[in-house]
Each structure stands twice: as C-alpha cells, then as structure tokens.
Amino acid sequence: MREEVDLIVHNATIYVVDESFTKTGAMAISNGKIIETGPNREILNKYKSSNVVDVRTQYIYPGFIDAHCHFLGYGLSLQEVDLVGTKSFDEVLEVVVEFARSSSSEWVTGRGWDQNDWEIKEFPNKSALDSLFPDRPVMVRRVDGHAALVNQEALNRAKITTETKVSGGKIETIDGELSGILLDNAIDIVNDVMPGTSESEFREALLSAQEKCFKVGLTTVDDAGLGYDIIKLIQAMHETGELKMKIYAMLNPSEENYRHFLVSGPLKTERLNARSFKYYADGALGSRGACLIEPYSDDPDNTGFLLQKPEYYRESAKKMIEAGFQMNTHCIGDSANRYILDVYAEFLQESNDKRWRIEHAQVVSQEDVSKFGKYNIIPSVQPTHGTSDMYWAEDRLGAARIVGAYAYKDLLDQLGIIANGSDFPVESINPLYGFYAAVERKDFDNYPEDGFQMENAMSRIEALKAMTIWAAISNFEENEKGSLEPGKDADFVILDHDIMNTDLSQVQNIRVLKTFINGEEVYTSY
Q1: Which residues touch 468 (CB under 8 Å, ≥6 apart)?
Q2: CA–CA gap between residue 380 and residue 434 (Å, rounded)
Q3: Where in the sequence is the domain holding 27, given as residue range(s)?
Q4: Among 191, 213, 244, where does a domain finish?
Q5: 309 and 379 in one domain?
Q6: pLDDT digits over 187-224, tens only?
C-alpha cells in the first residue's frame, strides 16, 4: 500500500547537498516538509499523490539563500530611477530627466551610478543638476549606497553648508564650494528631511522584490538592516499569506529596535527570523570610505574612516552578548576588519557558537585572516563584488594589499564555511551570477581570461554550499533549510541546466523553471 503525500517530484537530478553531497532522482513532500528522497522508482513505488511533478530530466537544488542583501531596499529602488550601467554622467542626467518627467514625487531619487565605469573616473558635480532642477530636490546614490550626489535644492532643505560638520562621513567641498557629493553619514542629513515612505509603498516594495527574487530561485533572503515597523509589517504580511519569502532579518541598531528586541529577545516564526543586528564599521572602497591601515594608493592623504567612534562597537558587542543576538558588521577596509575582529575576539573568546559575522570581509590583512577560524567568526561575502571591483581595486590598494582582497578561499579555509550573498541592489539579484563569480572569477565578457586572483576561487561544490547549507548555518537555520534532507522544509528550485557541470560562461542563459517554498510552487516559467 503506497503512502499518500502532498507532492511527488521525480525524473530529476536532485542535488541534496547533504554531508555526502548525494545526487538522487525523486522526493516525496507533505505538510511543507521533505519526507524522503531517493531513486525515481523507489519513491514512486512507496508514495502516491494527486500532485506529481515530472521534472523531465531537469535539475533540482535546495532553494537559494542570499546571505546578505537589501530586500526591502531593492523593492523600494524599483520605485526610483535606475542608474545601474550608466556609462557617463551625461547618461545619468538623461535618465534622471526622463524619469522626472513622469514622476509625480516631490523628490527625484535614484541609485546605481558608478564613476569607475565612466571614461572620466571622478565624482560628478551638482552644477548640471542645479541647472536642470533649480527648485526640485534631487538625490542620486552611487551603486554601493555609500556616496550620493544631491543638488543645491536638496542641500538647502537639509540646511547643509560648507560649515556643516558630520562624524563618520564627508561633505565634499571643492575650492570652498559644495560639490554636491556626500559620503556615508552625511547622506543621512538629507534622508532626514525627505518625505517618509508610506506603509502602502513599503508593502508594494516587499511584494515587488519577492516576485523578482522568486524568478531567480531565491527562497530565503538575509535583509541587512530593518526597523521595528518593517519587522511588524513583514510579520503581518506573512500571516495573511501575501508575503511568502523567508526573511532572515538583521535589525538596525536603532533605539526602537533596542527597546523592543533587547527585552523580548530574538523573534522566530515559520518565515521570519530576527536574531541579529547589523552594524557598519566603514564605507565602501569605490567611494574611498573604506577604512584602511595605510593610505589609499590613489589618494595618499586618505585612509578612509570608521563610521562611529571605536568605543561604540565595543558597547554594541556587549549588548549583543548579553541579549543573545548575533552581531553582523559591515567591514570593507583592512583597518575596519582588524578592529572589529579584535572587538569580536574580546567578547567571543575562542570556543563559541555565537556565529558572529563579518559582512563583506573585503580587504583583510594576512595577519588577521586566522582570527576568523580562531574565534569562530563567519565571513559573509559577495563574490560579484570581486568581479565588479577588479578593474580598479588595485588602483585603490596597490599590488601588495590587493592580494588580501576578495580572498574568499583563504577565508573559507579558516572555519570550513563561508556564506555567499550579493548585496543587491548593489549587484544583481541573480544568485547564479554570484556562483559564477565565485568559481570563475570573471565578468561576462570572459575577462580576465585566466580569472581574477584564481588562488581564491571556490570549487562548484563550495560555491553551491555557500548559498545553501552554509548560508543556512550562518543564519542558525541548518536544521530547517539549506539541503533537501528528510524533515527539512521543501524549499527548492528547478533549473534547466546543471550548474555543477555546464559551461558557466553561459550562466546568463540559465533559467529557473520553478521555485518552491514549503512545497508550494511560488514561481513557474511556464
């Protein structure tokens, strides 16, 4: 007598991603959980269902996890002007003007420009924006979000002058005049005078982001920095069933979040896990806000800066230890990485399962790499940052320091795990692009021919684990997701190519056919 189950998926190549890295052909699912995986005939002989999916020899993987992204921010960015891929400041202006014509918003906002992609690789100046928008405030952020260009009307509304001081940021002046460029904490001065986002706009952003993420096979996203009101909204939308995406929330270190969560403790539901806080140690390498031990090779008077006073991070670590929260800190430069690793070490000691994370771990001194293994600190990295930055990163760092940048294999070897994400919308939401960057370390034009610093490439198995089971471990969720083992959630994705064997230069053509969460089909391409 065959056992009745909710769903049978068969005639597939299934990568279970268990300890043995098993491949099999079918699986039985009930109540959103995997009951059993095994050979095709074995599962079909043992189970029956009114819902049988013949995968037609396609390929199944555990649902992809993005270990560091800005899910809500990405959704909100879909309501702004998209400047990703602009090849000059003139093109930025054209796109902004075109968007502004059809936008009824008082402010014109956008994100995505990168001066490193332009022939003139310098920060732009606000003068053209002032001419085009004399009375309408404009703020367009660099792709990494750590620099922004604003016009004079925006500066006026924020009451920013050449005398304005800011800690952990920079208001750029050239020849005694404001250029319109703001770095890091200086951007917040403008953010504070912009109209607030309504709940309906937040709701629309979450649903828009979900739709696009399901299309690329993401089933869990680690949203790096959320407020208490958004956590409540996500929880409510999960309860109604309109939001199905699973979210690992890194909480903003705001007073409101502290007041609530440091008293109540971590929040865990079926689809929402809020048990970490996200801190920023420094800015970005592209905007020269990353905090370096020695000056920038292409800006010898600049070492970047910490965004807060050093003692702030020790006080924060103490809060996290006492309240039982994971501490996740954005660290780009080698000085920021060193300082935060040492703060972590002070509070973690050597043997622990706190799983505190360094987000990005982008430039790490060789002297500091071993601290990840010694203190059980998880590197949470974005392989596409390496292939986006490789054209100019050595200009910033010099030949000696670049060796310790984007060193994902060195970091992986310390603890035996690494968590891969994308930092979208800084990079593409497609996790397969991160897989390609981790393994091939090239751009889509096959540059460089031999790969970028290939001693730090990951194997395909490592890259897959980094966006499935290792990402789940970094979220304390390895018992419920990250592999397709019995008892775990039936979160999986069906692809039309086998990424473990196919030519990855064709990764842009690989399609997600279906995405499932808890055994429910949430996306289909047909």
Answers
A1: 17, 61, 62, 63, 64, 65, 482, 483
A2: 13
A3: 3-57
A4: 191
A5: yes
A6: 999 999 999 999 999 999 999 999 999 999 999 999 99
